[in-house]
Amino acid sequence: MEAAMTSPTEPNPTDADASLAADGVAGDRVAPSGAAPVLELADITKSFGANQVLKGVDMALRPGCVTALLGANGAGKSTLIKILSGVHPDHGGTVAVDGIVRPLGSPSEAADHGIQTVHQRIDESIVPGLTVAENLVFEELIRGQLPAVRSTSQLLPRAREIAATLDLPWSDAVLRTDVFEFGIADSQMLLLARALSREPKVLILDEPTSTLSASEADRLFALVRQLRDHGVAILYVSHRLSEVRSLADDLVVLRDGRVTQQQQRPFDMSAAVRAMLAEGTDAGTATTVDEVRGHDEALDLRGLRLLARAEPIDLSIRAGEVTGVLGLIGAGKSELARQIFGADKLPEGEMRLKGAPYRPDHPRDAVAAGVYLVPEDRAAEAMFPAWSVARTVTLPFLGRVSRSGVLRQFLERATGNRVIETYQVVAEGPAQSVDALSGGNQQKVVVGRWMDADPQVLLLDEPFRGVDIGARGELSRRVREQAADGACVVVFASDVEEIRGVADRIVVLVEGQIHLDAYTTEVDDDAIVTAMSEES
């Protein structure tokens, strides 16, 4: 393993690796085929209450190979990672390491069997308030592998050794710094060094480049290749297909808790994307809406950069039609919605709303302009626990239900009743807690509060997630009615079938770039899937 720990700070790719970066092919390397799997999963199941998240997953990781795990939101990737990390020991099926079934009863036990995980949420593994040195040796401290210490100075020798596994140039002054002052990239390198200090057999990387710059990502890729070439089995979870092409030897697609496809290089990315999407995404599928084409430009977006490593995009969105923005996780859909709504600062570029300059510094500015967003995570971003339906509906528009700064409850109730009746919300009344409603009815409340307020621009981010088919159809009908009344409506989703069921125009985003822009009658599902798989 020690040879694998050379510095990744300045990667020096071979000519084959350089061509890989250009065309997405993994150089001339041939992955080992005869080696026995170092990790084998057999019939892995996991339920949370009545919700079965994993439904019999079989998978094997080979030593010296990078296995890419792909799947849409809700596919079960995070749950599977937590099982391998020892976070969810109460699962069905077996996990075998080097051919021996091993119980993974805790993260410590998983680590003892040679499995190390660097989670997507850096803040779940870093302890603010402790120094960099203390975080580097944290696991060894809690396992009692280090003698009792009274000062950071006593930890520095071991912290230096761990940092040296990645040749991290951190001085003693840096090691004494509160880790809270570290950036995301350095925090991630800290976690990698800590994981590699135990010389793992299996390294799990969960969306490792989601917050990295291009140079930081290149540094990580060099490290992954070094570890792979020294026999480590790597499970690489990513939504970026270019990274999968670049790094992976094997590919596994997870959908709805099941493995729907496994490939070895060379990969058929269109088939992989199709396996990630809902069944029934076939070529030639007819559109399920009567296409309408708007004529008046509502939003003009120029030079918007959605992702740090993406080129700026231009996009014109019209009133009177529904535009469907389609893309996999990490394509930049939510970033686009949040920039338009003022929830994220506009890093560069400009926007015009009906011909006038538009640059909201805060969502309140967007709401004042009639630009509304139904966010992807309605529970965390659109509702407050224990609030009534009426209060949830009127929250963004308190001025409309107040007089002289005093809330008029009869106006609040009337607004709640109107949304319940208009959008057929199944609720006891406007005073009922929104928490008590089904997922579909919660979504009707959140969507209804914005539609009730006569939007100029209505942005809906994954509006059908967690919604049954009946509620989906009703929401689609209401969305199209808003467009017919002259609103500019944009639906953001990762499911082709959902977009087909509501949109007149389809825009495909891949890693922050527009790969397709066409009306639904101009394009079939094969072209859409091909665009989503970066093979356009």
Provide a count of the helices.
20
- Specify the helix fraction band: 25-40%
Under CATH at level 1, the class of the largest domain stands as: Alpha Beta
- Please summarize the sheet with the most strands: 6 strands, mixed
Low-confidence stretches: 1-25, 280-287
> For the residues shown, what is the average pLDDT?
86
The CATH architecture assignment of the largest domain turns out to be 3-Layer(aba) Sandwich
Shape: globular
What's the count of strands?
Answer: 22
Structural class: alpha/beta
Intertermini distance: 40 Å
CATH superfamily of the largest domain: P-loop containing nucleotide triphosphate hydrolases
**Overall number of domains:** 4
- Rg, nearest Å: 25 Å
Describe this protein's structure.
The protein is of the alpha/beta class. The protein has 4 domains: 2-123 and 201-277, P-loop containing nucleotide triphosphate hydrolases (Rossmann fold, 3-Layer(aba) Sandwich), CATH 3.40.50; 127-181, no CATH class; 283-370 and 455-536, Rossmann fold; 387-453, no CATH class. Helices cover 32% and strands 22% of the residues. It is built from 20 helices and 22 strands. A hairpin with an 8-residue loop joins strand 11 (297-304) and strand 12 (313-318). Helix 16 crosses helix 17 and helix 17 (439-451) runs parallel beside helix 18. The relative contact order is 0.11.
